[in-house]
Amino acid sequence: xxxxxxxxxxxxxxxxxxxxxxxxxxxxxxxxxxxxxxxxxxxxxxxxxxxxxxxxxxxxxxxxxxxxxxxxxxxxxxxxxxxxxxxxxxxxxxxxxxxxxxxxxxxxxxxxxxxxxxxxxxxxxxxxxxxxxxxxxxxxxxxxxxxxxxxxxxxxxxxxxxxxxxxxxxxxxxxxxxxxxxxxxxxxxxxxxxxxxxxxxxxxxxxxxxxxxxxxxxxxxxxxxxxxxxxxxxxxxxxxxxxxxxxxxxxxxxxxxxxxxxxxxxxxxxxxxxxxxxxxxxxxxxxxxxxxxxxxxxxxxxxxxxxxxxxxxxxxxxxxxxxxxxxxxxxxxxxxxxxxxxxxxxxxxxxxxxxxxxxxxxxxxxxxxxxxxxxxxxxxxxxxxxxxxxxxxxxxxxxxxxxxxxxxxxxxxxxxxxxxxxxxxxxxxxxxx
Length: 433
Known about the structure:
Layout: E1 6-10, H1 14-25, E2 29-33, E3 54-55, E4 63-64, H2 68-77, H3 80-89, E5 94-97, E6 100-103, H4 108-121, E7 125-127, E8 132-138, E9 143-148, E10 153-156, E11 158-161, H5 176-183, E12 188-194, E13 198-199, H6 205-208, E14 212-221, E15 224-235, E16 239-241, H7 243-257, E17 262-267, H8 274-287, H9 293-297, H10 303-312, H11 321-324, H12 326-335, E18 339-343, E19 345-346, E20 354-359, E21 376-378, E22 386-387, H13 392-408, H14 426-432
Parallel strand pairs: 1-2, 1-11, 2-7, 11-21
Antiparallel strand pairs: 3-6, 4-22, 5-6, 8-9, 9-10, 12-20, 13-16, 13-19, 14-15, 14-17, 15-16, 17-18
């Protein structure tokens, strides 16, 4: 007779696989359901195919979440160091690249392979091409009845929803986890694309398309600065892209959805203090007064940017610097630090690297168990938690997967488990925090 606790994990992405492995390591009988024909497909495209596993320069400030205090407690339970130890324990060689963690091979497939092999070793039942379309909690039997798209029903004592999100998927896909959560009584905060490009109707963008430049970018919503990021900015014919744009794109997405005015102010000289910049421009003006404005600007930044600046200022490239005069040249140079682009939209969910919004984070406790339905847990992107670029979203997947899997398999202590120091009892982890 099988007395093992039966747990279903719905969704075999990053968080779902770790949840399944952890629960199985605690002695539970785990079934992992996946809609696609293979587990972990999204992992293969993370980090441009290299899979940025995590970041040693860790901070909860890199996350968007309505309860940072609770989020901090969760990262106390399973930190970036715990995830590093976990992956090394299952056979992955990890390297540190300026605090960014990658598989030593720099192949995302290596991460997926070790997870998949460990699922087999820990005897997790894997049901691919099986979409769970309905979940019912039976209070009398203290169990869940899950129904797949073919109408087949199975019963489990615990359920972990780790279905991920529609980010990077074709339109209409990736919404299953929200549907299940909503049917079980949970609130879904409106989902929006995160880590995505911003769109603009500015006509000059076509002239800048393809340009990459280091810049500082201020995000303003209704004339109030909401965020600032610096790094490589990329211009496209429809708007702007690059990591600094991705970092605050979710703020822009929600603001635009609320019909607020959104714009960015670009500083093409972020490394220069204001006084130094003024002196630099003045000295350049005095030493190159005989040149044309176009020649004066040569070498300051990308030529395409210079030509747009000249046009925006209403000047002609061939006008002599001394003829234009210092006040005109100074006004032109100020544009390089206060260049405005009005934002009209964000690219669709298919282009996003992550999804903002999801299951209300306030409806789960620190163990990631639902406050509404006992025995129901959530992990990963289906929750209203998302991070910035740099391995933070995968770290959330590992952390939430571990916490959900461990707590779903309650009643099993350290001596019953696999996985070394990462497999701890609930009480010990609470003492740690």
